[in-house]
Design a protein that fits this description.
- This protein has ten helices and ten strands.
- The chain is of the alpha/beta class.
- The chain folds into two domains: 131 residues, Response regulator (Rossmann fold), CATH 3.40.50.2300; 156 residues, 2-Layer Sandwich (Alpha-Beta Plaits).
- Helix 4 links the parallel strand 4 and strand 5.
- Helix 2 runs parallel beside helix 3 and helix 8 packs antiparallel against helix 9.
- The relative contact order is 0.09.
């Protein structure tokens, strides 16, 4: 029987089966428990974006990659650094505990441990993580459009660029701008302008069909989309879907020189991350292509691969 999907996920990392069994039996009543018997497997499970653990119980003394090295790698990766780590180990010297906490662990429990103490600390740190996640979520959402803000966009760009670099995969970026938005605001007022931006944001989000794609507010009347594992041709199809979707909103815009309704212009850039390319170059390319689309009459997109 599968556990309810809303239960917190805990990853137990230990190469001793009896330790895994003892902790697993105690935790499964309240949590979805995963196990790993090596550091490499722990990093693999922690890195699964859609199924990442909410907390990791990590043994220090393991063959090959020890717990300290696992923790160090978790904290170096933006995708996993927010997962709280509790060390559970027989290494009880002050310097051992100090090293673990310096590496970013939230707690350090020495063996032999008492299960009620472990369970209490697990509950405490999961509660703290829930509060942290809520604050992070609120800090990453644009208050007007309810989609990710510039801060979240920058984090996603950095994360996806790193992931694409590791995997040897392409990625694309779209930057779009509402055409003649100041004129729309001047004619209809800021309340109507705000509602226009909300509708554009919803249209942008609806045009991104994959869970990994991200729509965000770039600033003012500008928006952006991050498209992992996407080449230029497919990114262009997304851009056209966005352009058509906004035009189909049929929001009257009598002061626009592009169309009688609200429209957007888009810049589309795609690349395969390589050592001689940077994320900044990709974003700047999309921004320049947006300018070209606007200079060419607006209500269109311009795309180009960064080589």
């Amino acid at each position: 029987m599968n556990p309810p999907p809303d239960r917190p996920r805990i990853l137990i990392v230990d190469d001793v089966p009896v330790n895994i069994r003892m902790l697993g039996e105690a935790l499964r009543k309240e949590y979805d428990v995963r196990v790993a018997t090596s550091g490499a497997k722990a990093l693999e499970l922690a890195g699964i974006k859609e199924d990442a653990p909410d907390l990791i119980l990590l043994d220090v003394m393991m063959p090959g990659m020890d717990g300290y090295d696992v923790c160090r790698r978790l904290k170096e990766d933006p995708a996993t650094r927010g997962i709280p780590v509790i060390f559970i180990t027989a290494k009880g010297e002050v310097q051992d505990e100090t090293l673990g906490l310096d590496l970013g662990a939230v707690d350090y429990i020495t063996k032999p441990f008492k299960l009620p103490i472990v369970l209490a600390r697990v509950r405490t740190h999961l509660g703290l993580k829930r509060k942290t996640d809520l604050l992070e979520s609120l800090a990453s959402i644009d208050g007007l459009t309810d989609i990710p803000n510039r801060r979240a966009l920058d984090q996603a760009l950095d994360q996806e660029w790193r992931r694409a670099s590791r995997a040897g995969a392409p990625m694309a970026v779209i930057i779009l701008d509402v055409d003649y938005f100041k004129r729309y605001n001047d004619r209809f007022g800021h309340a109507a302008g705000d509602e226009c931006l909300r509708k554009v944001a919803r249209t942008l989000t609806a045009a991104l069909l994959r869970p990994a794609d991200l729509a965000a507010r770039y600033g003012g009347e500008e928006f952006a989309a991050v498209l992992p594992e996407t080449q230029l041709e497919d990114a262009g199809q997304v851009a056209e879907r966005i352009r058509v979707g906004v035009a189909d909103l049929a929001l009257p815009h009598p002061d626009s020189e592009a169309a009688p309704v609200v429209t957007v212009s888009l810049g589309v850039a795609a690349t395969w991350p390589e050592p001689n390319r940077t994320l900044q170059e990709l974003v700047e390319k999309a921004d320049r292509l947006l300018y070209e689309a606007k200079s060419s009459g607006r209500n269109r997109w311009k795309g180009e691969a960064l080589t």
